Structures
1.
Amino acid sequence: MKAGKVLLIGRPNVGKSTFVNNLIGQKVAITSPKPQTTRFPIKAVFEDNRGKIIFVDTPGIMGKTEDHLSENINKQTLQAIRETVDLVIYMIDHTRKRDFEEARVLGLVRQINKPKILVINKIDDQGKSYLPQYKFLEDEFRDVFQISALHKLHLKLLIDKIFEYLPEKKSDEFPPDLTYPVLNIDSKIFISELIREKVFLMMGEEIPYTTTVIVDDIIERNKNLTYIKARILTTYDRYKKMLIGAGGRKIKEIGAYARKEIALATGKKIYLDLTVETDPHWPEVYDNR
Ligand SMILES: Nc1nc2c(ncn2[C@@H]2O[C@H](COP(=O)(O)OP(=O)(O)OP(=O)(O)O)[C@@H](O)[C@H]2O)c(=O)[nH]1
Ligand SMILES: [Mg+2]
């Protein structure tokens, strides 16, 4: 049997988390059309009769970091890069121009002394393509795959190649199953992530970046009903108002959408008690998580 760790790296929004979710066949990492959706590395296991692959999905590396949160997010990825892995997947999005941000990510990838695979994502996208700008990379990477993470195109071929690179392991050397298939997050964090995703999907431009979600309680009221208490924190009062919305409509909408997904993921009926608070200091506290 084979087993090993694969680091997934790329700029924000290229589709890293979509790739991991669709490969594993269930949502382990939240996704959205906004950059820097992922805020900390998520380790998730893919398994078939050949063995186990631990994917490390990382937050997209930003070219410039202008605030505390972005800086912290980049730091998380730089730490993940230093972990021992067996293989690196460098993911690019051909629908976006190559720029200094991409150059920064490539610079980091070049420093990792491990086998590497270049993955060009979003090939289903028929809009403008900047693929010629990325052509030069094909000389640098022995293995190049064009995929659609969203539509699950060519994922099987890529998995075959990943297994080729991974070492043989005896089954007692396999990593332990913790909260399989996600190894490093507990249910409170997982639920807070699902709520945070709805904030990313339902709120305009900068608001998601001023927010975090804290789950305080998960209480099984009875066999069928689970009570969850959670808070959305935002750094500004004016955003608190927008998150609540006129007559509390927005927060109700976010809560309803999140509740549906939590119920689906847990197979239980969920009562979600969701509130909004202003907390200008959450980004600093978040640092120490
Ligand atoms: N058309 C198309 N869109 C995709 C594909 N893969 C991902 N996307 C979209 O790209 C956006 C970003 O996807 P994510 O998976 O959140 O990207 P990410 O690289 O994890 O982003 P960060 O966590 O911010 O670094 C979402 O709107 C996805 O639906 C793809 O293969 N084709
Ligand atoms: Mg992500």
Note: The chain has a mean pLDDT of 93.
2.
Amino acid sequence: MSPAARAGAPAATLTQAKIPGARLFRRGKVRDVYEAGDGLLVMVASDRLSAFDVVLPTPIPQKGRVLTRLSSFWFERTKAIAPNHIVETDLARFPEPFRSHPELGGRSVLVRRCERIDIECVARGYVSGSAWAEYRKMGTIAGERMPPGLLESEQLREPIFTPATKAVTGHDENISRAQLAAMVGHELAKKLEAVTIALYRSAHAFALGRGLILADTKFEFGFGPEPNPAPPPSKVSDPRYMASGPLTLIDEVLTPDSSRYWDAARYRAGETPPSFDKQYVRDFLVASGWNKEPPAPKLPPEVVEGTSQRYLDCYERIVGRPLDATDAPPVRTGGR
Ligand SMILES: Nc1ncnc2c1ncn2[C@@H]1O[C@H](COP(=O)(O)OP(=O)(O)O)[C@@H](O)[C@H]1O
Ligand SMILES: [Mg+2]
């Protein structure tokens, strides 16, 4: 049985939403974001998958639903640490025209539109990925000296904050904490770090209880809407940022696309543990000899199936039930 059939309806993949009459706010690599009036946005997670910053031509069944429902699960669990942008997860309670589009169900959220802080707030508890590459070469992570002799994938004594700028095009660029402070001010930099680390610690402990290691993850924050007579600040360095609404967790949280999860049972320091993220697809693409320039090659059915299954497995491990069995009433964490 295909993962799509196993996870129940709706089985069809969604590559790009088509909602006549709705105004597109932003089309990201994965999400189509629409204006919903009243300072609200509808974020639709498609089944698109990007690797090496290129969107692949083959959609991954259930991916958008996994990302949306896993994010909603975590937003609910972390709301005491950081207020978030969620207003509504039940499509039937969305404004028109969205609620008349059943294909959006389970893969869309109604959120408060926030003034985004263009920083990727990364927390790392283990030495992996680009942090391992930097440490091996220079003995530092995000420019800060680390103890000698760390192994690949080894747990750090304390989780660390390694921010990056959100690049408009191309790759995000790592910046030091001092650079972040210079960009957004000391007060906001300290707050972003403290909230990021608190979110990481809490999620790491919870995931470990479910047999998963949260090696690292990335958060995005914005300032919530509040009556503000001045035009919204357009630059992160604008001091009016500090005068805007409450610091709010936005985007997606603690999904396989934004996080590195490992199976705790298969974890060994000194090795690269298999992960639930896109590594499986990346391995296929590298082996195919693709030069990483668009267009990307189509994925064969077994890679599509294997990838879909990894997303569904990650959801099931964290939430504790398979995606199709989570028919509990939708959560509403925000008020209007
Ligand atoms: N509450 C919000 N207010 C404003 N922008 C948001 C909010 N939540 C998410 N976003 C933005 O919407 C976009 C989501 O689309 P996505 O496919 O994740 O984009 P990307 O290609 O940048 O990863 C991102 O640019 C994200 O920063
Ligand atoms: Mg994104």
Note: The two ends are 42 Å apart (CA to CA).
